Amino acid sequence: MHTQNLSQWTHQHVFDAGNHSAERSTRAVMWITAVMMVIEILAGWWFNSMALLADGWHMSSHAVAIGLSAFAYAAARRYADDPRFAFGTWKIEVLGGFASAIFLLGVAVMMVVGSLERIFSPQPIHYQEAIIIAVIGLIVNIVCARILGHAHDHAHSHEHEPHHHHDLNLNSAYLHVIADAATSVLAILALVGGWIYGWSWLDPVMGIVGAVLVAIWARKLILETGKVLLDREMDLPVVDEIREAVETGPEDGDTKIADLHVWRVGKRAYSCALSVVTHDVNLTVTRVREQLALHEEIVHSTIEIHHCTA
Predict the structure, then answer these.
(1) Given CA atoms 71, 60, 266, 168 in this order, what sign does their dihedral have?
(2) Most buried pick, 42, 130, 146, 290, via CB within 10 A?
(3) pLDDT at 171 (0 to 100)
């Protein structure tokens, strides 16, 4: 039986220059987004705009997600050498994302209820003031996108390996900002339509649309984080890649995998435990490890070989 060492991978993964840049950028964007989120929520409540409220709550989802990304970088850096974390600290981000997704579903329900109340009991909206706040929110999103885009370029400048995986954590934060900018546009359209054409119903309708966007994002996050937390990822392409790398036909010793377990230990990193049955008397753990090395996302492996003499 053989276990491939993971400690060197964990240290290199955490402390490269690209991760330091990404951590600084995500932390800055987190605080900018959080401040704008509070402004939009308070302005939406003060000016009676459900669309602005929806945009503010939707921005809260991204503030939480970006905050989790920043926290994950910091935690991974701080506890990289802590032996109590067998596979590193990446699942801190996953667990936080799952908890925030549950919270966001509750927020989406409250936004739908509030919007329906405004449809049946309309209240005056201070359109001009609300539009100004929404435009500021859109500008903030654009600035945040530029900050994360710069960090993305900086991370690419430190890539030396030809098959380097992109930082999915940073890419995810960038997509959150872009999606939030789209929600700000919806709020602006609703407020402009109500101000110019008197379509007061458009504001709560856009509030419902914003709540739906929050719910869709939360549902997707629950599914993604739930699969990782429950290790329900045996249908991933990497599983078939492991089988193809190890198994052979009768002419090559008739090697088959009798038992295989694969689970994720990083954004694009996997651990596996496999039991191999073979007629190839020359098959060794070293050979199996070399075959698995073709797939660099496999960073940890436990291998057991059973030789059949019959």
Answers:
(1) negative
(2) 130
(3) 66
Residue with tokens 């020359």: 282
| Domain coordinates in residue numbering, the chain | 2-229, 237-307
- The low-confidence residues of the chain, meaning pLDDT below 50, are 1-17, 158-166
pLDDT tens for each residue of 238-297: 999 999 999 988 887 789 999 999 998 877 789 999 999 999 888 999 999 999 988 888
Q: Which residues pair with 3 in a beta bridge?
A: 302
Sign of the torsion angle spanned by Cα atoms 131, 132, 133, 134: positive
**CATH fold label, 237-307:** Alpha-Beta Plaits (3.30.70)
**CA R_g for the chain:** 25
Alpha-carbon distance of 30 to 71, in angstroms, equals: 10
Cα torsion angle, 51, 57, 60, 62, sign: negative
SS3 string of the chain? Answer: CEECCCHHHHHHHHHCHHHHHHHHHHHHHHHHHHHHHHHHHHHHHHCCCHHHHHHHHHHHHHHHHHHHHHHHHHHHHHCCCCCCCECECHHHHHHHHHHHHHHHHHHHHHHHHHHHHHHHCCCCCCHHHHHHHHHHHHHHHHHHHHHHHHHHHHHHCCCCCCCCCCCHHHHHHHHHHHHHHHHHHHHHHHHHHHHHHCCCCHHHHHHHHHHHHHHHHHHHHHHHHHHHHCCCCCCCHHHHHHHHHHCCCHHHCCCEEEEEEEEEEECCEEEEEEEEEECCCCCCHHHHHHHHCCCCCEEEEEEEEEECCC
Q: What is the CATH number of domain 2-229?
A: 1.20.1510
